[in-house]
Structure formats: C-alpha cells, structure tokens
Known about the structure:
Elements: H1 2-50, H2 55-62, E1 70-74, E2 80-89, E3 104-113
Antiparallel strand pairs: 1-2, 2-3
Amino acid sequence: MKSKGQALVEFVIILPIFLLLLLGVIDIGKIVYFGNVLEHRMDDVVKMYEDDKSYEEILQQVRKNDQSLDLEIANDNDEFIELVLIKKIAIITPGLNLIFDDPYEIAVKRVISYEK
C-alpha cells in the first residue's frame, strides 16, 4: 500500500517540471520553425522587390497566409536597400518570458544592392 502512495507523490513532484520542459521545447520549436519560414518568405520578398513590385503589393502577398507578418524597407544610402520581415510569437511557457520577450519578435533581414 505504501508504494502506491509514494509513486503518486513522486509523480506529483515530477509532473510540473516535465510540463515546463515540454512547453519550453514547444516554444523553442516554434521560434526555430517560424525563423525558417521567414527565411523562405524573404526569398520571395527579394524576388518581388527586384521585379519592381510596390510595397503594398509585396506586403499583401506576404500577409496572404499570415496577417501577423510585418515588412520594413529601409534605404540608408543610394547603394543598398534593407528588407526586414518580422513576426511576433507568443510565449506559452511560464517563466520563459524572463529569458525571451513576450511576444518574442523574430526578424529576418536582407540587404540587397539598389539598382534603380
């Protein structure tokens, strides 16, 4: 009889730690996954920009499947253009927001030569 109670106590002690680890792995996985997705979408953004599409057309195409994406285009000088694709991800793991900002902002940046 005592071993059943002991197993229950051990389970109750380990369960919160296991759940925090599981949720942490899910959050880190989301960050890595969406970083990869943004890298691939940035290839499309660069192609559209090089095809002389307007900012509104590019942003509409980028937000076609995900409305939370944002696009910034900066022209610091006459030689280069900086394209930045941004997505904010909500952190679900309690305490992980002490390490990462909540929402965590993933930004993919490309610098291309300005030839217009």
